[in-house]
Amino acid sequence: MDDFGVVHALPDHAYQAGKYVLPNDEEEQDRMDIQYHAIRLLFENKPFFAPIGEKPERIVDFGTGTGIWAMDVGDAYPNATVIGTDLSPIQPTFVCPNVQFEINDVTDIPWTYKPNSFDLVHTRIMNGFGIRNWTDFYRESYNALKPGGWVESQEFSLEVNTDDASLPPDSAITKWCDLLYEGALTGAGQKLRLTGDELRVAMEEAGFVDITIRNFKLPIGPWAADEKLRETGQYALLAMLEGLFGISVAIFTRFLGWEIGELEVLLALVRAEWRRRKVHTYWPLFVAYGRKPLVAQNTDGENY
């Protein structure tokens, strides 16, 4: 573990250490893979929604984590080069020959990728934790994409919602969520709440057209009447229970001044509430995608 920083005995990222407030230990990697499965069920096995065509040549996934999305897309498009980038080299070594992984920081701009070279630029769950300025991200994506190429962001907002008032406003879950948001915003400048309309505006400012926003509800727990949503909720709940401490520890201790013991008491209450079948919570999750025009302009307004 010498190549990684450490936050309360949890490995941190070696590249840009301290910039990303989530750990990258095995527990966090398991959480990411479980979360991936929940979202895959919610999306009915679609890795993305942008209509990129049947023969893409180059695809890049920023914040690839364990690389599972990039590997699935590489399997689905064997003739495409799929690049997954992240701050940590935690991805598998043996993968399909068309899949490759790079250590990179999406916020290091300008990007070094060749202009007009990608068919799809993709992110998932990067808001705040990885991307703080969406306009900058979409401008870089615009330049990196081929004319007619697509950018897609699959993001959530740190707001635990319920449609039936089954979660009281004084719940431990609500307290945890609000404190996590406050700590990330005031301590690290990370805004963990977002709307699809905000992404639409940022895409428009970068020059994208044919922008679509699709809204989803990711259930937390097996409370839904629909069988597939119940399974989705089981995985989403497991991801939260597995990763709750890792998600919370840096923000609560670094930025809010909490002691570990205080945090563990709160998280025990949060876990207990989420295990109750009568608590019908979900994460708001949305997919935003847009197309670079066939006759495109660079960010200086010049046609190319």
Description:
The chain is an alpha/beta fold. It has a single domain (26-291), classed as 3-Layer(aba) Sandwich (Rossmann fold). 36% of the residues lie in helices and 20% in strands. The protein contains seven helices and nine strands. It has helices at residues 26-42, 68-76, 134-144, 172-188, 196-206, 227-255, 260-274; strands at 6-7, 10-11, 58-62, 81-86, 99-103, 118-124, 145-156, 209-220, 281-291. The strands form two sheets. The protein has a seven-stranded mixed sheet, sandwiched between helices. A two-stranded antiparallel sheet has the order 1-2. Helix 2 (68-76) links the parallel strand 3 (58-62) and strand 4. Helix 3 crosses helix 5 (196-206), helix 4 crosses helix 6 (227-255) and helix 6 runs antiparallel to helix 7. The longest helix is centred in the C-terminal third of the chain and has 29 residues, at 227-255. The chain is globular and about 55 Å long. 44% of the residues are buried. Mean pLDDT is 91; it is low at 1-18.
